[in-house]
Amino acid sequence: MKTEVLIIGQGISGTWLSYYLEKSGIDHFVIDQENPHTASRQAGGLINPVTGRNKVKTWLADQLLPFCRTAYVEMGACLEVAVIESKPIIECFGNPEAAALFSRRVSENPNYLEIPSHSPIQLDLFHNCHEVGLIRPAYLVNVQSLLSSWRNRLRALEKIGAYNFDVHQLKETNTGFTYKDITCNRVIFCDGARIQERQISSTIPLAPTKGEALILKIPDLPPSFVYKNKLTLLPLSSPGYWWAGSSYEWSFDHANPTSSFKEQTVSALEKWLAIPFEVVEQRAAIRMGTMERRPLVGFDSPEKKMGSTQWIGYQRLFASPLLCPSVSRKFSKGNRH
Ligand SMILES: Cc1cc2nc3c(=O)[nH]c(=O)nc-3n(C[C@H](O)[C@H](O)[C@H](O)COP(=O)(O)OP(=O)(O)OC[C@H]3O[C@@H](n4cnc5c(N)ncnc54)[C@H](O)[C@@H]3O)c2cc1C
After folding, report:
1. Helix pair angle (61-79, 12-23), 10° resolution
2. pTM
3. What is the pLDDT of residue 120?
4. From the CA of 39, how far away is ligand 1's center (Å)?
């Protein structure tokens, strides 16, 4: 089989690349081994315009928020599924200091932050919630639905192979590459945490972190908002189901869910929620980041035959590195593997 571009990985990064190649009429083939325990398949999918305790504006938020919204709406229309929803974030203040800090930030970021005069929710849903702040616009991306719908489309077009890609079997030719029976001009790795298995990683300051989350049933929590204190509660598409997360662990022995995360999160939820909840599932994955905490895209040789993207969910922004040339980083020359 001959194709222009071979994409390795169909997480959010490979899906965007495949979508934009299709839009541009560029023939491509995707190899993804369909592992459910990867970052895109475990992520909350929140696009938040501010980040951290100090509510600093997310990197390039003014440009990327409207861009992401339009792009996800277009993808959803193409796939006939709802991919993105506007979902304001409610932050519950347990003490006057937290409320005062938020209100100082409102004056810096009035486009994204507000202290509403009347709370849009019943405060007694939560213990010790005296006042709320509102973060908007914020969006929730249904990543699972997007990835599986795009995968179905690729499958129908016979443009995806569901198997492990073994980089040692990739052979360079005068015009491009061969991989088993595939001949292509370019290879783009969108392989998430598995970038570490390739030697190219030595040229990028990689910073993997583990994230854990719980899936909960909270039938009485209104799903029109995302709720935040130290944890984030995101409504899932099945009514009454919620995603609670996530941890940000720099040091870890394995990528599996842990009982300690579950215990700590349940204890935090018991202190926070004044309504019943039930844990139905535990999730975990490694997110690949860089020390710079920026999305990254680049070719690793001047001939531009092989490249990588790393989709950094930094500051919770599902934005495409592929469309942000200003963030592209050229990998060092001569490190093509
Ligand atoms: C718990 C958790 C919560 C998160 N929440 C958010 C959030 O709310 N908002 C946000 O913006 N970000 C969030 N993130 C971060 C975000 O999920 C990641 O930044 C993003 O999903 C990375 O996407 P990716 O496509 O680069 O990599 P991945 O999702 O890891 O995709 C890589 C794909 O490549 C495949 N692959 C790799 N190597 C091979 C191979 N050799 N052969 C075949 N297939 C291969 C894998 O199976 C996988 O399907 C979260 C992360 C975690 C872990």
Report:
1. 70
2. 0.91
3. 95
4. 3
